[in-house]
Amino acid sequence: MSITNPWPRFTKEGFKKERIPDDLYFDMMLEYNKARFTDIQQDPYFEPHYDQVVSGGAIAMLDTDEPFYLRANISDQAFDRWAKKLQPLMEKWCGEKLNFIQGYGIRSYHKDSMLCVHRDEISTHIISLIVHVDEHPEVKWPLEFIDHDGKLHKVTFDKGDMLMYESLCVHARETPFTGEYYRNMYFHWCPVDWDPTPYQNNWVRYRSIQEALNED
Ligand SMILES: [Fe+2]
């Protein structure tokens, strides 16, 4: 296993957790309280690099070949409105001019869900944001994150937290979720002058955090 080309660094550590600004959070909660989780997302396939059956690209569930999650459809207008307010914060954090690529969710994960160990889509998902919307009951579901120095962090969230992160850094939720539901939204940006070409042969999926930590 090898890294053909070293991954880029935009910030020192690769991630930063903050509270969602009040006005934005208020608007998000208005949308969330109207949202209904009627949309079952289930497109399972066996991904050999994870050695897991996954839906949604990277979501596995303990002891089942039929992993799923639910989704509430938040309007594109709402995502565009939020992305516009978030983008200056993201640009300030990473020091790059950004193009907004995509916002999606709200994803609702259920008991026994795991997020397989991965880096995001190298063509466009470079500077990203997780918004932690809700959980029930209040149980932590840590995000494992490997920083630029190869150090592993376990990031936990309270409702109303957001995590800015360089999504080409390895991340996962290896511990199966033990609660009833856990709800997040995601936003992705790309530096305006981004060129993915040097990284095309690098590994982006792993069987375990340990496998990613062993990579050199
Ligand atoms: Fe990801």
| DSSP helix fraction | 10-25%
Mean pLDDT: 95
Structural class: alpha+beta
Helix and strand pattern: EHEEEEEHEEEEEEEEEH
Helical segment count: 3
Major β-sheet, in short?
A: 7 strands, antiparallel
How much of the residues is beta strand, in percent? 35-45%
Distance N terminus to C terminus? 7 Å
**CATH fold topology:** Jelly Rolls
The CATH class name reads: Mainly Beta
Strand order of the largest sheet: 1-12-9-14-7-6-2
| CATH architecture title | Sandwich
**Quick one: overall form?**
globular
Low-confidence stretches at least 5 residues in length (pLDDT < 50)? none
Describe this structure in words.
- The protein is of the alpha+beta class and 216 residues long.
- It has one domain (15-203): Jelly Rolls, CATH 2.60.120.620.
- 18% of the residues lie in helices and 37% in strands.
- It is built from three helices and 15 strands.
- It has helices spanning 22-34, 76-94, 209-214; strands at residues 15-19, 39-41, 45-47, 52-54, 59-61, 69-71, 98-110, 113-118, 127-136, 143-146, 152-155, 161-166, 171-173, 181-191, 205-206.
- The strands form three sheets. It has a seven-stranded antiparallel sheet with strand order 1-12-9-14-7-6-2. Strands 5, 8, 10, 11, 13 and 15 form a six-stranded antiparallel sheet that branches. A two-stranded antiparallel sheet has the order 3-4.
- Strand 3 (45-47) and strand 4 form a beta hairpin.
- The longest helix has 19 residues, at 76-94.
- It is globular and about 45 Å long.
- The chain starts with 14 loop residues before the first strand and ends with a helix.
- The relative contact order is 0.25.
- The mean pLDDT is 95.
- Bound molecules: fe (ii) ion.
- Residues 118, 120, 167, 171 line the site of fe (ii) ion (FE2).
